[in-house]
């Protein structure tokens, strides 16, 4: 009887072992399947993230190029603005100098005009005086002529 128990125990152990090996095999297959699914999911996610990373890097590079272009444009515009401001300041200075020069010339011309008016008034007075002298001389000549003619007729 002891021997049959051992046989039964060996059979039971073999059955249990077979069941556990079957369960372990199914568990292993299920775990490997889950592992493969998870591996594929992670591989897909890593690929997507790698693509996203490449896209992000490309976008960053493009943005950096745009930033450099815009900074160059800003610098060029700043230089252009400085040049224009200098040109405006120079034009204002030339305008002020031209205005001062014109005012000085205007003052000179106004002085010359006033002097010319005074000279004209003086010459007009002298002319009037000369005309008065001429008229007096004409009258005197006419008087002498009459006197001479009167003397000749006597």
TrEMBL record:
Major site of localization recorded for this protein: cytoplasm
Keywords for the protein's UniProt record, in alphabetical order: Coiled coil, Cytoplasm, Intermediate filament, Keratin, Nucleus
Matches recorded under InterPro entries: IF_conserved, IF_rod_dom, Keratin_II
Pfam families recorded: Filament (PF00038)
Presence of the UniProt keyword Nucleus in the record: yes
Domain of life, per lineage: Eukaryota
Annotated PROSITE patterns: IF_ROD_1, IF_ROD_2
Compartments in which it is found: Cytoplasm; Nucleus matrix; Nucleus, Nucleoplasm
All residue ranges annotated as the IF rod domain in the record: 1-154
GO CC annotations, alphabetized: cytoplasm; keratin filament; nuclear matrix; nucleoplasm
SUPFAM superfamilies: Intermediate filament protein, coiled coil region
SMART domains: Filament
Coiled coil (UniProt feature): 53-133
Function comment: Together with KRT19, helps to link the contractile apparatus to dystrophin at the costameres of striated muscle.
Similarity section: Belongs to the intermediate filament family.
Name under which the protein is recorded: Keratin, type II cytoskeletal 8
Species for this entry: Falcunculus frontatus (Eastern shriketit)
Gene: Krt8
